[in-house]
Amino acid sequence: MFIQILLFLAILVQTIATVYALKLVRATKYNSIWILFIIGFSVLSVERIIQLLVFAGHPIPRFFMADIGFVVSICLSIGVMYAHKLFKYIDRLNHQRQLWNRRMLTATLRTEEKARSTFSKELHDGLGPLLSSAKMSLSALQSEEQDPARREMLSNTTYLINEAIRSIREISNNLSPHVLQDFGLARGVQNFIDKSVSMHNVKILFKTNLGRERFETDIEVILYRVICELINNSLKHASASLIELQLTASPTALQLDYRDDGRGFNPVVASECGMGLSNISSRIGSLGGLYELHSQPGAGMQAHICIALAGGEPTPKSDHKKNKKR
Questions:
Q1: 172 partner at 20 to 30 Å CA-CA among 8, 35, 55, 283?
Q2: Helix axes 62-122, 217-236, angle to 10 degrees
């Protein structure tokens, strides 16, 4: 009786599997997979029914049972082979989608940088000279004899124009850093650090083995933006008093190790990460790089970024430490 119950349950399970396979026939490109599974499960159900009949005392030829087993084996074996082919097809589609997303993101970032550069040039070459001309005209007026009230008004106006010129230069440089374009990544980062230190009560230690080496424009611009974003986050949100960053280049990779002593946060909570860190991940991903972030409340933040060069592979921080020990 127990064996008969097991056979009945087996028939029920195989029938349910057959129904699900029927639903999948039109849902995938490889319809033959599910057709073969339908045949296999159906024949298995028939085999279990025959076994029930055998237990009930009905004689069944042995060669018939052997034929059923052969059909089941063939259907399921071929179905598994087609399923393997289906999974390979899905992996290929996922890989193509990742490449497409990376290309789209890279194109977006390039368009953004091009717009920044154009706007920066318009500010610097368009509005800047106009303000300089206005300043020269005011200087000519100041050389004439004026009563104290008019002299003070001219002096205040000159001061405001100087501030406007300084602001335009600063905005233009932030939009498209000329030091980065002219002198490379290390000099551009150092220039941004000098400005940050002059405006905030913070100590920033920057170590690098880079000199005047140049890299692809996308790598330099994206890594520069990422470093600026990390420093701004440490200053504005983490209230850090000490920031350490090390930028090193090898023949196969460009690596950044970043650390601050700020208030820290929980990386698992999306609301604490913000759009800035999400943008960093997207930018590094567009280069096929590796981005690791570690932080917890009250313990500061650490970040590791690795971008492959000349066909190399991005290295996690743990592997990087092992290689240094060797």
A1: 283
A2: 80
The string of pLDDT tens digits covering residues 121-151 is: 777 677 777 778 887 777 777 666 667 777 7
Q: By the 8 A CB rule, do 288 and 312 touch?
A: no
Topology classification of domain 178-326: Heat Shock Protein 90 (3.30.565)
Residue 88 is encoded by which pair of tokens?
């390979």
Q: For 85-116, how does the pLDDT look when each residue is reduced to its tens digit (9 = 90+)? A: 777 877 888 888 877 777 777 777 677 777 77
Q: Can you give the residue ranges of every domain in the chain?
A: 2-102, 178-326
Average pLDDT value over all residues in the chain? 77
What's the chain's Rg over C-alpha atoms? 34
Single-letter amino acid, residue 167: S
Alpha carbons 38 and 32: distance in angstroms, whole number: 10
Closest residue by Cα to residue 109 from 189, 225, 275: 225
Q: Name the residue with tokens 């300089």.
A: 132
Decide which of 196 and 97 is more confident: 196
The span from the CA of 254 to the CA of 59, in Å, is 76
Exposure string for 209-236, b = 16+ CB within 10 A, e = fewer: ebeeeebeebbbbbbbbbbbbbbebbbe
